[in-house]
Write the structure tokens for this entry.
Amino acid sequence: MIIKLNKGLKLKVLKKVKIKDQDYNRPGPGYLDSGTLVQIVSSPTRLSDVPFKVLSGSGECTSRGLMKDTTYKIRVGSEFFFSQGHTTKCPYDWGTLDSDFFEVID
């Protein structure tokens, strides 16, 4: 099943999934652990990146620096972009998520 995205949609991560931080020049890789809850907070960017906020759960992300990368634990309220399981077709497209990685919650 495919999940169509829209603002305010709440999702539960079903299995460890890759994400990326919101650095437009050098996005850092990260992941969310299964059971993490997220909510889409705004419209897609010109690159069709869809921002979401972590409501609860855990994971890690790496911030890419000029001289050194820094890995940190994801905190509630942090915002990231979807990566693994997210498909888009054009600029500013919300796209869809793969239900193997996410499920919609109320």
Q: What stands out?
A: The mean pLDDT is 95. DSSP finds no helices and twelve strands in the chain. The CA atoms of residues 18 and 84 lie 5 Å apart.
